[in-house]
Write a structure and sequence with these properties.
Blueprint lengths: L2 H25 L9 E7 L3 H4 L9 H5 L4 E8 L6 E3 L6 E4 L3 E5 L9 E4 L4 E3 L5 E3 L22 E2 L4 E4 L2 E5 L2 E3 L7 E2 L4 E3 L2 H5 L2 E2 L3 E4 L1 E3 L5 H39 L1
Antiparallel strand pairs: 1-2, 3-17, 4-16, 5-6, 5-12, 6-14, 7-8, 9-10, 10-11, 12-15, 13-14
Helix pairs in contact: 1-5
């Protein structure tokens, strides 16, 4: 594979990844609390730098042409989604920064605390407050599961839950210092490292009862990203085919003349 083809192939691979990310964003325009991702790339270093071969002679002009692109970890943007009123007592939205605490015991451990912006809550058969979508228990500020009774529920902007005028619990509404380190796990869940969880802070956002946060995806931007990535795939494929034709001509025409 020649140098030009390598650059074009790297462009194809990164454009395909960008297309996948944008398509996933577009598919989640109706997912409660969904935060879109940004596909990140960077220019690939010249071989001399990439391989640490600083003593090997090189050509500065060729190096300035670049060596294609590399994929970087995608970034999640945590911009606010639109709040919409539902009228359901157990629907809550976070206005501003912050995450709910939920416990994911799918691996048999009771210590897997996860973060979420999905405020669709429900009362399960055991009387626990859970996420309606995943069934995972929602936790209070002390990482304890919350029991609620039958009947109307009131949740104020600080997450204080009351029933019949009596305080039941306070929702865990937290934030972490470095959101870039959060790992998406599906179902609207984010995993934080132990150090981030231990140093978590009280969130500055506020709870809005009887409302849900819509997806933060802009469908027009997402559609344009999908289209742009598809064009880049097509353009790079065209360059690969063009280089193949040139190589074929060099071998079968110029080579025969020589």
């Amino acid at each position: 594979m020649n140098y030009g083809t390598q650059i074009s192939v790297s462009g194809i691979l990164t454009a395909l990844h960008r297309q996948d990310v944008a398509t996933n964003n577009l598919a989640n325009i109706n997912t409660v609390g969904f935060k879109p991702q940004l596909a990140m790339t960077r220019q690939r270093d010249p071989v001399r730098i990439e391989d640490g071969a600083s003593g090997i002679p090189s050509d500065a002009m060729i190096e300035r042409l670049g060596a294609g692109v590399h994929l970087m970890p995608s970034l999640t943007t945590f911009g606010q989604g639109t709040l919409r009123t539902t009228g359901n007592d157990l629907d809550i939205a976070i206005e501003g920064d912050g995450f709910l605490l939920v416990r994911d015991a799918s691996d048999g451990s009771s210590d897997r605390v996860r973060l979420s912006r999905d405020g669709r809550l429900a009362r399960n058969a055991d009387g626990l407050l859970v996420q309606a979508s995943s069934g995972l228990p929602v936790l209070d500020r002390s990482n304890r599961e919350i029991e609620i009774g039958q009947g109307p529920v009131e949740i104020d902007e600080d997450g204080v839950i009351t029933q019949g005028g009596a305080k039941v619990a306070v929702l865990g509404l937290v934030d972490v210092e470095n959101r870039r380190e959060l790992k998406r796990e599906g179902e609207g869940l984010y995993a934080a490292g132990a150090s981030d969880l231990n140093s978590r802070t009280q969130a500055t956002g506020r709870i809005r009862q009887r409302a849900l946060e819509s997806s933060a995806v802009d469908e027009i931007d997402a559609l344009m990203d999908v289209t742009s990535a598809a064009r880049d795939v097509s353009a790079n494929l065209g360059m690969v085919q063009y280089q193949d034709r040139l190589l074929d001509r060099a071998i079968n025409t110029l080579g025969r003349v020589a």
